[in-house]
Amino acid sequence: MDSSPLISPSLFPPSFFSYPSKSNFSMEFSRTDQTLLCLLFISPFLFAFADNYQSYNSLTAYEMLEKFDFPKGILPEGVQSYLLRSDGSFDVFLGDYCELKASGSYLLRYRRKISGKVEPRSLKKLEGVSVKILFLWFGISEVIRSGDELRFFVGPFSASFSISNFEFCPQCRDRFSSLDQLVQNS
Questions:
Q1: For the whole model, what pTM was predicted?
Q2: For the chain, what is the domain count?
Q3: Is the N or C terminus of the chain more exposed, i.e. has fewer CB atoms within 10 Å?
Q4: What is the distance between the alpha carbons of residues 145 and 125, in angstroms, rounded to a whole number?
């Protein structure tokens, strides 16, 4: 094993490792200068964070849906808040679980949290909304707007409805039981 130093002193003279003395270099800043430097250093990180997590506090979830060319009535009344990220992924938070009848005889359930990805005329990767078909509940995975119709996808199947059915936000008719919530969450 060689015990020679990793850096040879002949390669780097002693002055290479010396630091300027206080008399040669002064770094004294006033409190205001320190605050400004701190803000200049931190602001790019704050803007990057804010860009990724926009809550659009000035717009409601219903108004935001309309910006993406969807009628507000695809969400029930009672949205508490929402989060829309710059990549289009979103979370909508309701005050409680919700069940309602929509477009005739379809029974819909909304969880407290609805997630997915929004683009103009397209809601994809939906979680938290299901429809009852016969005796079983199926998750609605996607909603596409085509002209004056909305097409709802449940697995490989779909059904289309006029957007006039979604002009107004429906009211939840029932809160479903804890047992139903347990089954719904599994």
A1: 0.63
A2: 1
A3: N
A4: 15
